[in-house]
């Protein structure tokens, strides 16, 4: 098994910067102010042939009020799961009371704890470490996470205590893993829904819009809907996306960018809507973005419990009215707080994933195309009618049907929509868009002028004389 390394410390000591350095990614958002990281973030790194897992956590030790309390709980969970703890302190700020408080708790742990004195670039190492020897931690490393100085030597020492990695470590991900991004406006209950699905407080939930900032990926295993096996999932919690005109802070802009990138990395997107507000213009913008990417889509209308019957009917009418452009989208009504309807979501998710990655041979698709065009031929365009000859699958997520024929560019949009709907009906595609790609065969005689023989020229002259008479 890969060793798990938890990064802990008070706010703004450089944990997220070190996380990005160790994983060689930019998964953790970094900014020069405290309290940015709130949820625990997992990432994989490698030193030569030695893989490891790093856990980034929120700052602890300075406050136990408000949102700091659940942030501390997340950090403590990461410490409990880890094989080794890297305790980060700020070498420029020196030793603080919060550092001493955290160190006193870490010394009680029955696992290795290493002290990383960060931000020591430009400082004498002995001077930077002098204040921190009093914490009682024998393994001290002066590092500069932003520039990478001392990081490799530190992680080499940390990994020495662990056996060589198994050959199975670092295996490629299961291609049948279902990646589900949870998207929505701020404070609609995305994190609450993920915690309800997982059955634990995996991400921070607080009654404050914009609690989630990083994009958090959580892998888990669940029994499939047929009950005859297990299926791997990755839930991706994203930051709430407000209207562009209301996004002013730089950090929120980065959070929105990461949320939209999560949509591209997902296979199924679950858009969460607040039932109290109904479907808003911002919800429609998010739905439109998901449809543009071609991802399978499920809508979860949250906070459904406790609503009056009239309000429920109004929400359903609004959904039907405003989702006319995507009537195939499945809408499910849930209460993430109480768990009502949450378990049924996975039936929609699995059907949407199966539809997005449908497999079908060219012969079957061509027969479907012939049946469709026989019952309702393409309309004429001038003197000619488009001929659709054969079809095959050209891609997945979304499933793309490539149709070859002649004069396909003359097909009107209405007939293309008819083809999409018929293919959706015959292929039983649920919860996923479907795209058509029309290709016309090249005319081998295009641009070539016919050369007449001498006999043909004479015959043409005789006929023209006859016509003139």
TrEMBL record:
Keywords: GTP-binding, Nucleotide-binding, Repeat, Ribosome biogenesis. The keyword Membrane does not apply. SUPFAM superfamilies: P-loop containing nucleoside triphosphate hydrolases (SSF52540). Residues 3-166, 178-357 form the EngA-type G domain. The keyword GTP-binding applies. GTP 1 binds at residues 9-16, 56-60, 118-121. Gene3D superfamilies: 3.30.300.20, P-loop containing nucleotide triphosphate hydrolases. GTP 2 binds at residues 184-191, 237-241, 302-305. HAMAP family: GTPase_Der. GTPase that plays an essential role in the late steps of ribosome biogenesis. Associates with the 50S ribosomal subunit. NCBIfam families: GTPase_EngA, small_GTP. This is GTPase Der. It comes from Alloalcanivorax venustensis ISO4.
């Amino acid at each position: 098994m890969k060793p798990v390394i938890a990064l802990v410390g008070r706010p703004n000591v450089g944990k997220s910067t070190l996380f990005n350095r160790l994983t060689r990614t930019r998964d953790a958002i970094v900014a020069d102010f405290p309290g940015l990281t709130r949820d625990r973030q997992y990432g994989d790194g490698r030193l030569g042939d030695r893989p490891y897992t790093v856990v980034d956590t929120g700052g602890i030790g300075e406050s136990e009020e408000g949102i700091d309390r659940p942030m501390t709980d997340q950090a403590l969970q990461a410490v409990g799961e880890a094989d080794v703890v890297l305790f980060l302190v700020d070498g420029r700020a020196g030793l603080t009371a919060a550092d001493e408080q955290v160190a006193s708790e870490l010394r009680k742990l029955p696992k290795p704890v290493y002290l990383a004195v960060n931000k020591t670039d430009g400082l004498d190492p002995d001077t930077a470490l002098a204040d921190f020897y009093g914490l009682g931690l024998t393994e001290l490393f002066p590092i500069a996470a932003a520039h990478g100085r001392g990081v490799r030597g530190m992680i080499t020492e940390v990994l020495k205590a662990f056996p060589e990695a198994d050959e199975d470590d670092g295996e490629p991900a299961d291609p049948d893993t279902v990646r589900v991004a949870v998207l929505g406006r701020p404070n609609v209950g995305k994190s609450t829904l993920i915690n309800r699905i997982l059955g634990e407080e995996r991400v921070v939930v607080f009654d404050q819009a914009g609690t989630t900032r990083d994009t958090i990926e959580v892998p888990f295993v669940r029994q499939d809907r047929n009950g005859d096996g297990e299926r791997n999932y990755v839930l991706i919690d994203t930051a709430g996306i407000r209207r562009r005109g209301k996004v002013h802070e730089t950090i929120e802009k980065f959070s929105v960018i990461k949320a939209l990138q999560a949509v591209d990395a997902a296979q199924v997107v679950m858009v969460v809507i607040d039932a109290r507000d109904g479907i808003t213009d911002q919800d429609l913008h998010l739905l439109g973005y998901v449809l543009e990417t071609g991802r399978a889509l499920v809508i979860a209308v949250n906070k459904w419990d406790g609503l009056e019957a009239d309000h429920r009917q109004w929400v359903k009418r609004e959904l039907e009215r405003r989702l006319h452009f995507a009537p195939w989208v499945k809408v499910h009504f849930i209460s993430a707080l109480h768990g009502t309807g949450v378990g049924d979501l996975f039936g929609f998710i699995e059907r949407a994933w199966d539809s997005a990655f449908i497999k079908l041979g060219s012969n079957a698709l061509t027969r479907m195309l012939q049946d469709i065009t026989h019952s309702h031929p393409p309309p004429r365009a001038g003197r000619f009618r488009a001929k659709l000859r054969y079809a095959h699958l050209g891609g997945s997520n979304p499933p793309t049907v490539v149709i070859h024929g002649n004069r396909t560019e003359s097909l009107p949009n209405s007939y293309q929509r008819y083809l999409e709907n018929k293919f959706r009906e015959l292929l039983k595609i649920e919860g996923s868009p479907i795209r058509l790609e029309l290709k016309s065969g090249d005319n081998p005689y295009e641009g070539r002028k016919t050369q007449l023989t001498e006999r043909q020229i004479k015959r043409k002259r005789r006929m023209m004389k006859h016509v003139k008479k």
